[in-house]
Fold this sequence. Notes:
four-stranded mixed sheet; 13 strands; binds iron/sulfur cluster; iron; rSAM; pyridoxal phosphate; metal-binding; 4 iron, 4 sulfur cluster binding
Amino acid sequence: MEEIVKKEGVLGLESPEQERMNLYSSLDWKDYKSQLRNRVRSQDLHKYFHLTESEKLGIQDTIRLNVGATPYYLSLSDPNDENCPIRKIIVPRQEEAFFSPEEAMDPLHEEDLSPVKGLTHMYPDRVLLFSNHECSVYCRHCMRGRKVSDSSERMESEDLERCFEYIRDHSEISDVVISGGDPLNLSDAKLDWILENLERIPHIKICRLGTRNPVTLPMRITDELCKIIESHNTDRLSIFCNTQFNHEKECTTEAKEAILKLLKAGVSIGNQSVILKGINDDGESMLRLHRKLLEMRIRAYYMYDPELIPGSRGFRTPLAKGIQIIEYMRGKIAGMGIPQFVNDLPGGGGKITLSPNWYLGFHRDSRNHVFRSAVRGTYHLSPEPVGSEYDDFYPSLDLETWEKIRENLYSVTRGLRLEEEGF
Ligand SMILES: *Cc1c(COP(=O)(O)O)cnc(C)c1O
Ligand code: SF4
């Protein structure tokens, strides 16, 4: 092993470890601008990773967004382990080169639902504002890969002004989700200008910053940035932040510092993770991630299924995984650490939530609801109130299930089983 390292040195090819040391020592680590200037691109990946054949093909033939990673985020990845979760988010693999028949550039029809460039108006009271196309790290799984990292998708100030005008003209809108790209990749001055414009619209009460910078470039959360955010976080406007941690390896001391700064600026922070094959697609990984997030004072918000975008097959998991993950988590962590499992419906149907089946149905004869305990796996009865007119609202418990579980039912009478209660 030592010999190989030496030989590579002689040939002018340093080991990934050495190349990384060189990179890290060449920049001002805590300065976010220095981190951005020194981002790792497609052609640099071979220096920082022992690439697999699949990765080499992915880098060469990808149909997805550009490669880009901050030295900070790179430092969380493993140069030798091809299964490292952070590495899979940074480095394209062969699966990225295939456009599967079920995939589409814009599966959520965000463009059809766009009244002006950069704005998606799907729900009456909320809009999605595409503020810019840049990010600190270009995540291989990005669902907005059709626009992100593509400089032809640049939003000029006039484009943003047209968005503000639309929002101003639609008084039913009260909530603006700023996303991109990543709004925290805008300059302080531009972000200040956007927030100021939104704050001036009387019917806008809520603004959400969708940003992955606390994860990929925590040094971006500077005191100056926080001051700007805080200055618009006022009686008139409430600023929230939705971030996207996907793996416990991302929960570093630096990330926590960034989060605490945002909290001090009065920003409420939620996490929207994405279920990614081989990265976090099991209950234990998601549980560990969300435990770390609570330690960082981040509440769970959503957990998404990856969208049907071109080249996404390497990340997609069966729908069942999401339901199983939530089922696994319930009872093992505080409720504020359990996300809602969300599917954004293809074709512009909006988001829906899916949850495990803890409700087995209504036993009509005894007018009892039957539940399965998430903690113990036992079955429990709860009666519908006397006089309720909602009996028809509930799905019937099928009799076969009833026969199977009736011997083992728990009810309000602790310790007493059904038989003893005379059903
Ligand atoms: C996700 C999304 C929102 C915000 O939805 P919430 O469920 O309120 O977080 C708003 N507009 C569009 C188009 C979206 O996709
Ligand atoms: S930070 Fe968000 S928008 Fe940017 S590439 Fe990653 S997932 Fe996409």
